[in-house]
């Protein structure tokens, strides 16, 4: 169930106009050259020493390496033209057989892609070490916030948390699409009419899935809330459930990582509803705290990892072809099933949340209200592959202009897990909801301005 907060009007729609040519995503070769295998614990600790000494860019690689300067990577768009989310041609839309959509071939699914290479996410998450070494008060607050959320949870939140605990969140989060459209989406999945979409996003074996959080959990080795405070939390599980049997570490949250790679993927496949999908994704992460399975910082770390994993997929040109095919399939099937005018149907549906309210909730969950532990005002350094997440929401912008959107919509520096103080890029600061739903103007020289 969406949270009960005041209704805020959605942002104004963007004027129509002829789309400019779509800029390509980051090349697969860039992904291949920057990815690296998961290091052994001693090697990872060496990487983290570099990070904490201010040389994290050398360690983080593709996930956190410094992006090139955010200048237009191609022809500048016409000066003064407004650009809103989701505007532009959907490649392959007219080729989808909505009655019997074709699945990917076995060759497409079994091929080796540059983005399949395993990445070490520990350096990107290494801000947790700073908290352990220098800010024990933040970790104490982390526990107290967890227990407060756990104790204050409603029956509806508990029920929803249990559903997400045991379900495939690419399916259980369907209500983020809207009351009626979510049901249409689930019916299409059940009928096997979204074979390309489900083969990428499914919990079990989804081709786009993120790497496991287990290596990071083993590295940080931080006990879960119900282990640290066994007499202070309220158990919230189904009868006969085994949610509290896990012996793995707390940071980062594996379920939240799953929610965010699935939710971020779905938002990029259907950017017309990105704010609502991302708000529902944030709620799924929040439910981990409701159950006292995880702390807020675990959830923030899970978000960072899940979104970086999907950015890696979109930054791989060859894999992005699968993603674009799935986007065409999803849009075409939903449009057919809701009366052949998806946008009008969405306007008449009961939204999960109005767009501005969804983005406000999402932004609150980026920090969970923790105070700063490092200076504010540090310029945002966008991770080198992060702009790929805006490929479908801002198809008429260049890669450099998409980076500018991420810079302009990022939250301020200094919150827990932000690495800006170490002069490296920060996944913690990326506000994807604000970036995907941003309405922008582009100067003749390619400079982007938020409306």
Automatic annotation (TrEMBL):
Residues 77-89 have a biased composition (Gly residues). GO terms for cellular component: outer membrane-bounded periplasmic space. Pfam families: PAP2 (PF01569). Residues 213-310 form the Phosphatidic acid phosphatase type 2/haloperoxidase domain. Residues 15-43 have a biased composition (Low complexity). Residues 1-14 have a biased composition (Pro residues). This is Phosphatase PAP2 family protein. It comes from Candidatus Brachybacterium intestinipullorum.
